[in-house]
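Onboarding guide, step 5: your first structure request.
Type a short instruction followed by the sequence, for example:

Predict the 3D structure of this protein.
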Amino acid sequence: MADVTDWINTRLFRHDRMVVVNELRAGLSAWTDRLIAVAVALIALVALHSWLSPRPLIVAGWAIAGLAAASGASGARLIEQRRIFHAYDGIIAADALADRAWRRYAAPIHALLCGIVAFVALIGRPATLGVAIISYLVGAGCGHIASRIMRRRSGATPSAPLRLDRSLLQRPIAGALAAIPVTLPLLFFSSAATEAMLVLTGVIAGAVALMLTLVDDGAIRFMALSGYKVGRIIGLHSRSLLVFSLLTVLACLILSASAAAIVIGCVAVAAFGVMTARILAYRVHAKRSADLIVGIGAVAAVLAGVALPLLLPLVVVAILWQLYRRAAPATWLLT
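The system replies with structure tokens like these:
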């Protein structure tokens, strides 16, 4: 009887474990994808160790603590979201509503994430291991408390979240409006320190440009099903980003801020690369698998840019070419 009870209490975890395994198999179906994922993980660990080793222990400790706390909060938020899904839309809703079964679900996930954080801390700076574990537990606890408070304030049943209509982001007017928060600091604080202004401009431009790269995966697949070529889909979705780039760069040149124009131009090129990768991946993969592939490619490009900046264009072209080879011949059939 105890064995049956334990089996029932772990059904949620086994169900989601199967979902994750299937998503990883779909997203990393080719051996080259798996090789790239392993290489990116190893390079990221080496880069973290190289960055933390010469730093003072207090700096390394705060960096690891922030990473661990963010991981714990993200893990808690994910667990709470999965509980809501299972309770209202899942096939084993009874388990999601049972506290004991839910604890059996959350405990192994937190143990796995905490183990990963501890391993990263050992590689980055072994002396920060204790700080990493404590910070993860604090972040996880705060994440669970905050998620439950927000759920109670929003009502007993989860209401549909407010979602931005992503089709509006592809309109040229969206690019024109997005250029305003980037150009205003240059207009009113042009006398500020040059480096600080460049950093502020880059951060604002990066946040706005990334928002303009959001695309609807369902719309991408429907357009592919309707016979739209890759170039046409990219052109239709990049109009707002093109308008944003032209207006902001032109404003920087008028204000004699050539350095800011270069920064914004680099941000716009990077954003266009991210959008192109998303569109190519969405043509042949489900959203979660596509986001996983794009995320791995983005991390690989960032690491290449930090380690060998001259190889960055080659790495980006190689990633986009690999995605294009899969996306271009994709044929979608109605069934």
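Each response can be followed by summary notes, for example: The chain has 17 helices and no strands.
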